[in-house]
Amino acid sequence: MIANLIGVDAEPVADVVRGGVVESAHRGHVVALDACGAVQVRRGDPDTTVFPRSSLKPVQAVAMLRAGLDIEGELLALACASHSGEPAHLDGVRRILAVAGLTTADLQNTPTLPLDAEAAFGWRAAGNGPASLAQNCSGKHAAMLATCVAAGWDTAGYRDPAHPLQKAIRATVAELTGDGDPAYVTVDGCGAPLFSCTVAGLARAFAAIATAAPGTPEHRVATAVRAHPFFVGGTGRFVTRLLDAVPGLVAKDGAEGVFAAAVPDGRAVAIKIADGAQRPVPTVVAAALAALGVDVPDEVGRVDVLGHGEPVGAVHAAF
Fold this sequence. Notes:
Elements: E1 11-18, E2 21-33, E3 39-43, E4 49-50, H1 57-66, H2 73-79, H3 87-99, H4 117-125, H5 138-151, H6 164-177, E5 185-187, E6 193-195, E7 197-198, H7 199-210, H8 217-227, H9 229-232, H10 238-245, E8 250-254, E9 258-262, E10 268-273, H11 281-291, H12 298-301, E11 304-307, E12 310-317
Antiparallel strand pairs: 1-2, 1-12, 2-3, 2-10, 4-7, 5-6, 8-9, 9-10, 11-12
Helix pairs in contact: 1-5, 1-6, 1-8, 2-3, 2-5, 2-8, 3-5, 6-7
């Protein structure tokens, strides 16, 4: 029997309006927590278990720092990233590997082209094809390898859920989310193990990172993400624009319509779009943050609906 991680309690979270008419609608789960962790916004069922996808990367980075990874700044932000594959991103991945005495040949993430269209064109023009370095999770995989070197663990099997690295990540996910041991484990798109959590648990994890005391692994991750938005995403990406626009924010996007964010006082949001669409994510995230009193500039959360290349409507939050 196949488990339904979307659940039956998803509710409308966004309407797609074209020419003054609702053309489409998205359902999902949204939670916004105040600074004390109390629920202020609830759509759908925040206790629904989901695969958080790449939104989990800051939590994974905390686990890696605890295990001995020693990087900071833009390289640590890159360890949390789903980067666009721009030259600075790829150079950063090479730097993480070099510090550990490794090369791109050690990466085991799925070979692809860069996410960014211009970067992909340049990559192709240089005679390159799909490569692990170019894939958006290469920063995380480089950091995983560097963690293994620092901890004295085998690097060849770092993607195995039974590997000490993945056991450490699993334990950190359980701790920071407050959900306990993940109910489901599978393989993410990049080839690394993927641990489930609840939507509310994801928000709690980001609150823990955003409020952590200086010097802790959580605070080191928060500092890196706040200081280097470009390395978390890339040119024009929503996560990068949001981090640039909201001082002190810690945020991360994930595939299949997942997003999480928190500010330094612990107010936090997490969302899961039931149909996996990315289109409504900026609008829904901005609305959830606004409900907590976090100021998000209109242009950051706005998603236009185009007709002949011109705006003829927009995506609107349904709460």
